[in-house]
Amino acid sequence: MAISVGPTLFAIIRYSMHHSYRAGLAFVLGVSVSDILYVTLANIATQWMTFLEDHQKTVGYVGSGLFLIMGLYGLMKKFKPKKPNRDQKTMKISRSAYFQIWLSGFLMNTLNPGVVLTWVGAVALIAGPSVEASHKVVLFSTCLGLVLGIDFLKVFLADKIRHKLNLRTIMYINKISAICIFALGLILLIKTHFNLGVSH
């Protein structure tokens, strides 16, 4: 999950390169909160997670719709990037904008059926009366920490690259990112419709 190539990776790159690392971190934290929510629910609310598994198709349609909309928005929006000042390491963004970015990360991760299957499968593998609660806490804390740490690394790498790119290259990367998110949404829609299974 930490090194997977999915819609969240391209979104991290896009937000980090558009608005600096702070926006990327806001997005990553939204994804992380979603992961924590799923892990918690998978461990203490089995029936609720079973309900999500039974309604994978609905989650898949909603998730693919979100990815398609985000991809189209990125393609259609007329973006005029500003060359970042080397002496200015951060850009001013309103609190409401940070919340919107955080929310987009939370929703993108939450509405990805592959995330549901991954965490439910992980919990199911170690579920049993002989498994102590402390063991689960250590295991899942390590997993969540690793995923979050790698995502932070992606954010800072994207921000470092941003300062070395010209305006035309930034625009191309923005469009490529939008195309990738749209394509992943289309793939998820096809997989969901034809019951081909989903992946993170």
Q: Overview of this structure, please?
A:
The protein has 200 residues and is mostly helical. It has helices spanning 7-19, 21-44, 46-54, 56-76, 95-110, 113-126, 133-162, 167-193.
Give a brief description.
The chain has helices at 7-19, 21-44, 46-54, 56-76, 95-110, 113-126, 133-162, 167-193. The chain is mostly helical.
Strand and helix layout:
Elements (H helix, E strand, L loop, with lengths): L6 H13 L1 H24 L1 H9 L1 H21 L18 H16 L2 H14 L6 H30 L4 H27 L7
Helix pairs in contact: 1-2, 1-5, 1-7, 1-8, 2-5, 2-6, 2-7, 4-8
Strand residue content: under 5%
Distance between the termini: 7 Å
What is the share of helical residues?
Answer: over 70%
Pattern of helices and strands:
HHHHHHHH
Shape verdict:
globular
What is the average per-residue confidence, as pLDDT, rounded to a whole number?
Answer: 77
Poorly predicted spans: 84-90
The total beta strand count reads 0
Structural class: mainly alpha
Oligomer: single chain
Cα-atom Rg, whole angstroms? 18 Å
Total number of helical segments? 8
Major sheet: size, sense and barrel closure?
A: none
